Amino acid sequence: MVGDVTGDGKEDLVTSNPNSYGCYALESTGSDFQGPQRWCDYPALTSIYGDTNFIGDADNDGRADAIMVQRQTASNPRGGISVARSIIDGYGRERFADSTPWLDNIIAGDYGNRAADLDGDGDTDVIGLFDHITLAALSDGTTTLPLTGWGPPIRGEKATLAADATGDGKADFILVDSNGTKVVPSNANRWFDTPTQWSTTPFYGTRKTLTADIDADGNADLIAVNDTDVQVMRSTGAGYAPPELWYAGSFSGTRDTLTADVDGDGDADLIAANDNNVQVLRSQ
């Protein structure tokens, strides 16, 4: 997982071990990652209960927090959301505070969850993809508001993403299909409008399909991580430009492949998390 947990403008790498307690942050200096530093002493981020975890600024203080979407269990039949805020404690140590409940309701989607700023207020919100509706759990900075229907139960054949592709500060719904990509721009009707065809070019990665702003123009672009190369389609704010080669070689992690602005220059970089190291492909 990635997010700017220290609030310095450079996104950091956050890891957890599903077989043990605690989580760790590899803080970015802008040119590399520092060694792992313990950021929590509890199993909140270990996913041992089927939880989905995100790193995002839930309280709009400039520091990314740990957001945990909990599935229903016998002891917690409604699931919900808990947040561990990024803080500097009384000893001057940067860490995640103890997690607190933000939502007591079912938001763990049948087809997973996404996290993005849906309403443009600077807080990270949670999206639940259900078989009957798309729900939003909006953050007001201190808690999660009652669940809101945000769109119909639609998904992309290859990928379902949420990011600000139009540059208005609000996350849009991006549906990557086998024969092109559609976008539902966020507006007063939320995501209930008919999807707009932004590209008829088949574009999805053999390894992973991601979205992020690679050129610092405020619009989230589409990234295809393939076996042999990395390609991008830049967003114009109303459509996607033709595909272009971004890296002529294989670049993906054995553990995960992520995108984030790790050097603080405003455009997203590509991160390959491997068993023994972390590599970064910087956007230029």
Automatic annotation (TrEMBL):
InterPro entries: FG-GAP, Integrin_alpha_N
One Pfam family this sequence matches: FG-GAP
Keywords: Signal
PANTHER family documented for this protein: ATP_GTP-BINDING PROTEIN, SENSOR KINASE-RELATED
Protein name (record): FG-GAP repeat protein
Organism of this sequence: Prauserella flavalba
